[in-house]
Amino acid sequence: NKIYFIIVAIVSIVVFSLIIAMQFMPDKTLGDFSVSSLPVVNAIINSLVSILLIVGLRAIKKGNVKLHNTIMRSAFILSALFIITYVIYHTQAAEAKYGDINGDGLVSQQEIVSVGMIRSVYFFILASHIILSAVILPMVLITMYFALTKQFDRHRKIAKITWPLWLYVSITGVIVYFMIAPYYH
After folding, report:
1. N or C: which end of the chain has fewer CB within 10 A?
2. What are the b/e assignments for 27-63, b being 16+ CB within 10 Å?
């Protein structure tokens, strides 16, 4: 148990550190490789994860453990794929700035006024999404560990917290995409 929890902590710290470090990477080029389609791919992945989480919950509530296991593993694999494509995109693409109407990479006071209060809503959703994204990774790994090691009482207990947070993160990921999409240039 202790070794697994150490691994979970290390993986979580490495992934979160990598995501933070991406913001400071100066060279954003893969040559001719285009990452422009990855934001929509990530929104699709997050949508699928949301659907799988809901279907997985329904399956376990109906007592279909085998289907629940398959669905939750699929949600986990898609979430891992999301993290990979997210990191690839954000290490290669310029940051899209909410409200950058003219696409110059800056958000002027006039653009902020033009966008209005929805900008504050966007940043609230984004902030909660980012914070819970950092929290959910170790929670998902621990929840999966309890299921795989047949510690079902512990699995159920943490899953009651993990599941709604994971669903929130996947749904807000889609919302954030749709809100920022007009500002990709």
Report:
1. N
2. eeeeeeeebeebbeebbebbbbbbebbeebbebbeee
User: For the chain, what percentages of helix, strand and coil (3-state, to nearest 5) are there?
Assistant: 75, 0, 25
How much is the pTM? Answer: 0.87
| HSE, side-chain direction, 13 A CA sphere, residue 7 | 7
pLDDT one-digit tens code per residue, 158-170: 999 999 999 999 9
Instruction: Concatenate the DSSP letters of all residues of 124-149 into one string.
Output: HHHHHHHHHHHHHHHHHHHHHHHHHT
Contact 4, 143 (CB under 8 A): no
What does the pLDDT look like over 69-98, one tens digit per residue?
Answer: 999 999 999 999 999 898 888 877 778 899
pLDDT tens by residue, 1-33: 788 888 888 888 888 887 777 766 655 555 556
The answer for residues whose C-beta is within 8 angstroms of residue 89's C-beta and 6 or more apart is 35, 38, 39, 42
The token pair at 108 is 């002027």
Judge contact between 28 and 92, C-beta under 8 A: yes
